[in-house]
Amino acid sequence: MENNTLSQKGSVTDAVSGSSDRPFNRKMRRIITRFCRDEDGVITIFAVYMLLLIVAIGGFGVNLMHNEMVRTKVQSTLDRAILAAADLEQTLPADEVVEDYFAKAGMSQYLEGVQVTPGPALPTTYFRIVKATART
Questions:
Q1: How far is Cα 95 from Cα 11, in angstroms, rounded to an integer?
Q2: Segment (H or E) for 8
Q3: Which tens digits make up the pLDDT trace of 108-126?
Q4: Three-class SS of residue 53?
Q5: Is this model's pTM higher than 0.70 or not?
Q6: Using alpha carbons only, how large is the chain's radius of gyration in Å?
Q7: Any idea what DSSP says for residue 19?
Q8: 114 strand-pairing partners
Q9: Torsion over CA of 79, 84, 109 and 60, rounded to 10 degrees?
């Protein structure tokens, strides 16, 4: 039993001194060298980068189309509101008509301001100018 204890102590001493871990170092060095030289899977990294690039471009496209959709809705609402407000048969104040159009379209946050300029009250040239600004 005493021999087993000595041999175990000897193996512990060898492990601490580093004499028995040389094969482990060589094996690990071979694995690392093979890993560095191995080119298998390189296309996988390239494919992942391309996938990320495609997703980013797709997200940019979706964002761009959303902004364009909002812009056209605001432009359409603004055109309709100004034409309705400039109508001479309109009995409501022009600025309220424009604000009401935007409120009913759910776009009040885009309307910045309305300016109404009445035309001269001549019998043949009665008109009013309605200007409105909106942001998208």
A1: 95
A2: helix 2-17
A3: 999 999 998 877 765 556 7
A4: helix
A5: no
A6: 39
A7: S
A8: 132
A9: -20
